Amino acid sequence: MEVEVKLRLPDSASHQRLSTVLSPYHLKTHAQENVFFDGASAELSSNLAVLRLRFYDLDSRCVISLKAKPVISNGISRIEEDEEQLDPTIGRACAAEPWRLLLIDGCRIVERVKSEYEIGEKGLVCLGGFRNLRGVYEWKGLKLEVDETHYDFGTGYEIECESSEPEIAKNLIEELLNSNEIQYSYSEVSKFAIFRSGKLPHQYQ
Predict the structure, then answer these.
(1) CDD domains, alphabetically (predicted)?
(2) Which structural domain, as residue segments, surrounds residue 186?
(3) Which of 15, 49, 172, 201 is the most exposed place for a label (fewest CB within 10 A)?
(4) How is residue 21 annotated by DSSP?
(5) Domain for residue 204, yes or no?
(6) Is residue 136 part of a domain?
(7) Rounded to whole angstroms, how far apart are CA atoms 38 and 119?
């Protein structure tokens, strides 16, 4: 179970202000590309699951993940998540031709997709995806991830923090934002849900 604090920032100015405040704590910045898949008959999405390939920093790394049963409330997200490393070359081939995913040998997640979700003869389809620029910061014992997410229909901004004590982490992050007069709100949906909706959340359009 992945548990994260997720707070949405209203615009690029707020994102830049937060990045500046956190600059002394900056560890690294990742350029991510996220590509999503579903069964041809919606076998995954109908069960609140999604299969994702994430490419890092010009294909220097690729991670395949299966996420399921997301719940987000009061700025805290809980979701079942399983991840594995994948050769980026294989990942790119699968992104171009989704049928290749089900042929990957020795991949626990692929085996789960086939067995648990009973993907039919039509196999998998690619849903498309989005790009994300993620700044990673180590601050007060927390790993903060500040995202600038580029969808085809606009750009979203968010701060995420995975924590075993999410309420404590959320309070610390809110204090940071409030003390620096940075506006924010609790994220109500995931980036994937925003991507699938085809529009940014209403208050940020």
Answers:
(1) CYTH-like_Pase (cd07374)
(2) 2-197
(3) 201
(4) H
(5) no
(6) yes
(7) 9
